[in-house]
Specification:
Chain lengths: 56, 752
């Protein structure tokens, strides 16, 4: 059977890797690093959100 | 008389007048005067029952109201009072039990995503079976401590948010942390309590046993564990590995050159090893070569000299490779091995950077390289906390023997957030420093703990085998709000609060002191804690615990200053001076308490992960939304300038540095850099140099560290991944990933 070239292109386009996968954001909380903000408690999430960078 | 009553849960139960009589009798007995005869008791009971019947009262609370009123009406005022107290006490117990069960329900049926209580500590997975089991234990223990152990005023002060007793669930059990010296531990071999381990003989075993020691100790204490001299300790493993590799290569060379048997070659190597005297060391290979030549007969000399040169080069490379693998394994293990029944990995810290031996340098270089490489797929390792000890003459200045490692440490920190930097030249650290003695090099544990001075034993103001016993923090913003601008009132309240905390720390210390060596088979049984080696299994640890510290912490200096002066220490000179006065006063008080008790009372710049939200919530309930004080969801960490306040890095360092000298139980200053500045080595170094110059004790640089698990990119990701171009949640085609993999070898394999 002949392959339908259009169909093959379509399959290739729809096969995508990483759908639904988020970015990881490592942050220092007090002195420890945490691999994801999900495990921060509410207060620390707020603190992390408010942080401003210091210029050099 | 009513036939039934309605209980608190709404169910009905048969009426029993005997219960009323008993309750009144109990209340009367508690008074000790106003004695009621059996007839009096019956009389009151009958009066109560009559009124219940007349008014149709059935609910248990209504019945109790009638009992109170009847007692008062017939002249039993004191008994009535006792009855009211008894009733209130029971209400409290009932409420408390409901409270505990409510917590257990939350722990059981809610996910960590929904419930803050399961995210108190970000490094404990509150969703797992063991994580939840740990929380059941912890919450049940807190309930027990509150209701049966703590003096009532202390328990109230904790629960209303005046103070915070850290690790209260461990109140009856153990101490916070310890700085472990692996060198003597390894020399004699050790038992973890579950099996004995021999002295290790290669860098791989050194690294593995270091992990095991950290893990074993973590399971006996409630805080993190630290190795204060990681380079010195591991250097011995590198030395042993180098010797093995050297003689292996030496024999191999001889065998090939002589075309002899392996046995003959090994025999010759063994013979020379004895004749040459002290065995070869990595940093003194030439010296060994000379001794070897001298020991060899003239006939063999040329062969052995060549074998030596070959073996030195071969062993150097092999040892370096093995050390890298051992350091990689060390990091991997500390991020994956379990503690606390699987709810955590051990909280670990390692300090290094001052050992200038070839072996120690090899350890640090490879540990830093392995840290840069990251875990599988390039993930950033969370543990151990790494601390590079900065010291002029050893690594800080160009030309210092470990200056290259200092440079590598900064490059690693710019990429992976670790190491942090401990400054041995800060005056309060330098005063303890003795060149060449690692036991006098200031070290830091975990997020900031520092244990160095020792009033109990001034001859031993040293690092190893010591740690913090417990710490309790004071809510400074509340004092500011209570004082309402009146400084005299503020300092009076502060003194009152400090007295309470001193008393509480001593209360806990007494409990800790009654424990025996057998309660800590590793920490005390293996002699890790200072002087515990001389104790027997059933000896109390009271004496040796006196080497530890009892720390008073504080949180929210910035908000306290806002409440008192309208500005924090980043905003006005008035606040700046007052801030130093407040913390200076606290330090004076802890010093005086040390003098008085000969115990190490120290002042801590509290990190307060779980605490920062709890205090502000309680204060908001009490004082409402006070601008600059209670209007955010957290209080500012210790003496820090608030995270939301914009100011240049150098100014932040200058403003916070003086507090490092005052907080002898530990401190840290952070600077937040953006991704680009951080990648600029000169800018990064300028920040670290400024910390050194200003007398900061412990500092670190924060920068956004994101990672795309799909293409493996590590760096800053705003909306779109700079490497593969996907947005959060989007997919990438396999072709794109394959093309990227040709360019970047760290792209994870997804498509086989």
């Amino acid at each position: 059977m002949l392959m339908d070239p259009q169909r093959e292109t379509k399959t290739r386009q729809t096969r995508r890797i990483g759908e639904g996968v988020g970015f990881e954001r490592t942050r220092r909380i007090t002195g420890y690093l945490v691999g994801t903000l999900d495990r921060f408690n509410n207060a620390k999430r707020a603190e992390e959100r408010d942080r401003v960078r210091h210029g050099v | 008389m009513p036939s039934s009553i309605i209980k608190r849960d709404g169910k009905s139960a048969p009426f029993d007048s005997g219960k009323i009589l008993n309750a009144v009798n109990k209340a009367n007995k508690a008074v000790g005067e106003e004695e009621m005869s059996p007839t009096d008791l019956l009389f009151v009971t009958e009066k109560v029952c009559g009124r219940l019947e007349r008014e149709g009262l059935k609910h248990v609370e209504e019945i109790q109201d009638v009992v109170e009123e009847t007692l008062i009406r017939y002249g039993y005022a004191r008994t009535a009072k006792a009855y009211i107290l008894y009733r209130a006490e029971h209400a409290k117990i009932r409420n408390a039990e409901t409270y505990l069960m409510d917590i257990y329900k939350k722990l059981t049926w809610s996910s960590a995503l929904e419930e803050d209580i399961k995210r108190e500590n970000a490094n404990i997975d509150g969703d797992t079976a063991m994580g939840t089991m740990l929380k059941y234990g912890s919450e049940g223990s807190k309930f027990f401590i509150d209701n049966h152990i703590l003096p009532k005023d202390v328990s109230a002060a904790h629960n209303n948010g005046d103070i915070h007793i850290h690790d209260k669930d461990f109140y009856m059990l153990t101490e916070t942390c310890c700085q472990i010296d692996l060198i003597p531990l390894f020399r004699r071999g050790f038992s973890t309590g579950h099996g004995h381990l021999r002295e290790p003989n290669s860098i791989e075993s050194y690294s593995a046993l270091a992990c095991i020691a950290i893990q074993a100790n973590q399971n006996e204490m409630h805080g993190g564990q630290s190795v204060p001299n990681f380079d010195y300790a591991m250097a011995q493993g590198v030395g042993k590995t180098f010797c093995q590799e050297y003689w292996k290569a030496f024999a191999a060379y001889v065998q090939v050159k002589e075309d002899g048997s392996e046995e003959e070659a090994l025999a010759l190597a063994g013979e020379m090893r004895v004749l040459a005297g002290e065995d070869i060391r990595m940093g003194a290979a030439e010296d060994f070569g000379r001794r070897l030549s001298a020991a060899a007969g003239a006939g063999r000399r040329p062969l052995l000299e060549k074998a030596h040169a070959y073996a030195v080069e071969k062993a150097g490379k092999a040892t370096d490779r093995r050390t890298y693998q051992a350091m990689e394994a060390f990091i991997h293990n500390l991020n994956t091995m379990n503690s606390r029944a699987g709810a955590q990995v051990p909280f670990s810290s390692v300090n290094y950077g001052t050992d200038t031996s070839a072996e120690g340098r090899m350890v640090v270089r490879n540990l830093l390289l392995a840290t840069q490489a990251g875990l599988g797929n390039g993930e950033t390792s969370i543990f151990p906390v790494q601390i590079f000890k900065v010291k002029s003459g050893l690594n800080f200045q160009p030309g210092d023997p470990n200056h290259d490692l200092f440079q590598l440490a900064m490059a690693t920190s710019a990429r992976r957030l670790f190491p942090n930097f401990g400054f041995l030249d800060a005056p309060f650290n330098l005063r303890y420093y003795k060149p060449g003695d690692y036991d006098t090099e200031a070290a830091y544990m975990g997020c900031r703990t520092r244990v160095l001075g020792n009033i109990h034993d001034p001859e031993r103001q040293t690092i190893c085998g010591r740690g913090n016993l417990s710490f309790t923090s004071i809510n400074l913003p509340r004092l500011g709000l209570e004082a309402d601008g009146n400084l005299g009132a503020f300092f009076a309240l502060l003194d009152e609060r400090m007295d309470l905390v001193f008393r509480q720390l001593l209360h806990r210390f007494k409990i800790q002191s009654a424990k025996k060596v057998r309660n800590y088979p590793f920490l005390m049984g293996e002699g890790i804690w200072m002087d515990s080696g001389g104790l027997d299994w059933d000896d109390a640890i009271a004496g040796v615990l006196r080497h530890g510290t009892l720390s008073v912490g504080f949180i929210g200096l910035a908000e306290a200053l806002k409440a008192l002066t309208g500005a924090h220490h980043g905003e006005s000179d008035e606040a700046r001076n007052l801030g130093l006065r407040i913390i200076g006063h606290m330090r004076r008080r802890t010093d005086e308490e040390s003098e008085r008790t000969r115990l190490n009372f120290t002042l801590l710049a509290t990190p307060a992960e779980g605490l920062s939200g709890r205090f502000v919530e309680l204060d908001r309930r009490r004082y409402g939304l006070v601008p600059g004080v209670t209007d955010r969801d957290y209080y500012t960490n210790s003496f820090h300038i608030p995270v939301y306040f914009p100011l240049p890095a150098f100014r932040k360092i200058r403003l916070e540095a003086p507090y490092h000298a005052l907080t002898n139980a530990g401190h840290i200053t952070y600077v937040e850099l953006d991704g680009d500045t951080c990648k600029n080595p000169e800018a990064f170094e300028a920040v670290i140099r400024c910390m050194h110059e200003q007398g900061v004790g412990y500092g670190s640089v924060n920068h956004p560290l994101d990672r795309d698990p799909v293409c493996g990119y590590v760096g800053v990701i705003n909306g779109v991944c700079p490497r593969c171009g996907r947005k959060e949640g989007e997919g990438v085609s396999p072709e794109v990933l394959r093309a990227l993999r040709r360019q970047y070898p760290d792209v994870p394999l997804w498509d086989g």
